[in-house]
Design a protein that fits this description.
The protein is an all-alpha fold. It has one domain. Helices cover about 60% and strands about 0% of the residues. The chain has six helices and no strands. Helix 2 runs antiparallel to helix 3 and helix 3 runs antiparallel to helix 4. The longest helix is centred in the middle third of the chain and has 15 residues. The N and C termini lie far apart (about 50 Å). The mean pLDDT is about 80.
Length: about 100
């Protein structure tokens, strides 16, 4: 993504707070429910195009590569279904090790 920003001449433009927020939103797309990705990306396109027209090259690339005609199926890069499967902390593991150490 950073290499693509350089190629598109967006590095200097990406210093603003609004731009950084939208770039972060792009990076967070894999964590959204699959049925919300298109709507969220349309909002990102609208916001970035209002900042500078050069961002349309970046959004076109993402649109073509990941959204409309993806090189990889959405199920491959979308992580929404994996959220909640893994434990948020390692407290259970630490508790188990504590019990194990107390018996030794």
């Amino acid at each position: 993504m950073a290499t693509n920003k350089k190629k598109k001449g967006l590095l200097k433009l990406s210093q603003g707070e609004d731009v950084r927020r939208q770039i972060t939103n792009i990076l967070m797309l894999p964590f959204l429910p699959p049925d919300e990705i298109n709507n969220a990306f349309c909002n990102i396109i609208e916001d970035l195009s209002n900042i500078h027209v050069k961002f349309l090259k970046l959004t076109d690339y993402i649109l073509e590569t990941y959204i409309e005609e993806p090189l990889y199926p959405r199920s491959f890069w979308n992580l929404f279904d994996l959220i909640g499967i893994r434990p948020k902390t390692n407290n259970r593991i630490e508790g188990y090790h504590g019990q194990l150490n107390s018996h030794l």
